[in-house]
Design goal:
Blueprint (H helix, E strand, L loop, with lengths): L2 H10 L6 H27 L10 H16 L1 H4 L8 H25 L8 H31 L5 E6 L3 H11 L6 E7 L4 H7 L7 E4 L6 H10 L6 E4 L12 E5 L2 E5 L7 H36 L5 E7 L5 E7 L24 H8 L7 H7 L3 E3 L6 H7 L15 E3 L1 H4 L9 H17 L2 H15 L7
């Protein structure tokens, strides 16, 4: 074996994913829980006592998390080598909140709530979560740094050649923190010979970058790996499929690959709906005087109705009425066709132009949000006629309707709003909308809302 290989072998001995490391992490977490309990007790009750010296109820509240976290061992103490740091913290938060809720219920049912200081409980619960999160962040980024230096790596063999394997290699080379060392990239028919001649380092991971339709080569590769202890993973040609919200699901006991599925389901859908209701209510209370003033101004300067209602596609393509303040003189569509407002459009009044440029004409859509027909953040709803036109020209255009339309969106805060005079603009808008749908979260929504406040209201394309 070469000197270079020897150096890598010595570095590989740093196996921080070994089971004993996970058990050690659990011990550290238990120690942190106890220390935070002591600090919380001393800071509020004035006596720095170790948990075994505290009253019995406090002892149980400190001991229970240690046991309950051990029951979630596989969720909390698995390898996070390839996972997003937010995913790691989200798992911790779910487990810790569940533990605290269990403790609250037990205290209530045992009529022991008066025996425990609520301030202590809040300091204890929040302090433990913060400390455990900080420890995980230190470990997460510390390991990334070690792996970038060549330590704690895993050997990887890629089977297959083509665009998929090219993309996999590119991602690995750009992700030194993952700690993967590629042993080679070979064809399926050469795999058996490679494994028989492997000296020193056998692959710990084998990734088959083969099309799903290539049954022959998949079978050849699996036969060659029949005696291998490596983790074997199949990576089909996802890049050509352009999936949305993809993942594995099960229906009637049948495992399925989701190619295009709704993201508004389960807890994510509940959180999104709750976010919309709360924010829309607060915003409507805050802006109601402004809306009343705009309504009076429209009535006095234009006459006629204050609101303009237009039928647009909502969630899953269902037709909905979207409200806006009226900004144009009363007119009928030409041959039933809705014509987009353009620069210096004669139909737009002076007040209407101001409302459009400042996006104030869209304030009534918060009522749509309370009705459950729209979200505060999501792809902007287009006129039905525009959808019928662009769905034939822009790939995946109608996937925008996998979520509720929004008052503001990722495309809007990136400058893609107003008139669409070129197909390239619509393609880019759709691309940004689909990026939002793929990555939607409470934090992403709050980011878009914040960006809208600073740069999304007034735009040169809004007329």
């Amino acid at each position: 074996m070469s000197t270079h290989s020897s150096i890598f072998s010595s570095r590989a001995r740093l196996r921080l994913s070994s089971p004993w490391v996970a058990y050690l992490a659990l011990v550290v977490d238990v120690f942190v829980i106890n220390v935070v309990a002591v600090i919380a007790y001393g800071s509020y009750l004035g006596a720095y006592l170790w948990p075994h010296q505290m009253p019995t109820t406090y002892q149980l509240l400190v001991a229970a998390p240690s046991v309950l976290m051990a029951f979630q061992f596989d969720r909390l103490y698995r390898s996070w080598r390839l996972s997003n740091v937010l995913t790691m913290l989200w798992e911790l938060s779910k487990v810790w909140v569940a533990i605290l809720l269990v403790e609250v219920v037990v205290l209530f049912l045992s009529k022991s709530t008066t025996e425990v200081s609520r301030v202590w409980f809040l300091i204890f619960g929040g302090g433990v979560f913060c400390c455990l999160s900080i420890l995980r962040l230190i470990a997460y980024y510390g390991l990334h740094l070690l792996r970038a230096q060549g330590y704690n790596y895993r050997t990887l063999l890629i089977v297959g050649e083509g665009p998929t394997s090219d993309e996999v290699v590119r991602v690995i080379e750009a992700s030194a923190f993952s700690g993967f060392r590629v042993l080679g990239r070979i064809l399926p028919e050469a795999l058996a010979d490679f494994l028989s001649k492997a000296e020193g380092e056998a692959p710990q991971e084998v990734w088959l970058c083969l099309p799903l339709s290539d049954e022959h080569n998949v079978k050849v590769a699996l036969d060659a790996l029949g005696h291998s202890t490596a983790n074997i993973r199949l990576i089909p040609d996802w890049f050509s499929l352009r999936l949305m919200n993809h993942g594995m699901s099960e229906r009637l006991g049948i495992p399925m690959l989701d190619i295009s599925a709704s993201t508004l389901s389960g807890m994510s859908g509940f959180v999104k709906a709750l976010e919309d209701k709360i924010l829309a209510t607060l915003i409507l209370i805050f802006i109601s005087p402004l809306m009343l003033g705009i309504a009076l101004a429209i009535r006095l300067t234009m006459g006629g109705p204050v609101l303009f209602k237009q039928i647009r596609h909502g969630w899953n393509g269902k037709l909905i009425n979207v409200y806006k303040f009226r900004t144009m003189v009363l007119h009928e569509p030409v041959n039933g066709e809705v014509i987009q407002a353009t620069q210096n459009d004669q139909r737009v009044t002076r007040l209407g132009g101001f409302l459009r440029r400042t996006s104030l004409d869209e304030l009534p859509q918060f009522v749509n949000v309370l009705q459950g027909k729209m979200s505060i953040v999501g792809p902007r709803p287009h006129a039905v006629a525009h959808n019928e036109h662009y769905k034939e020209l822009v790939p995946r255009y109608m996937l925008r309707h996998k979520v509720k339309p929004g008052i503001t969106g990722w495309a809007q805060v990136n400058g893609f709003r107003g008139e669409i005079d070129r197909i390239e603009k619509m393609e880019r808008r759709v691309e940004l909308d689909l990026f939002y749908i793929e990555n939607m979260s409470l934090w992403f929504d709050l980011k878009i809302i914040l960006l809208t406040v600073f740069k999304g209201f007034v735009h040169r394309n809004a007329y």
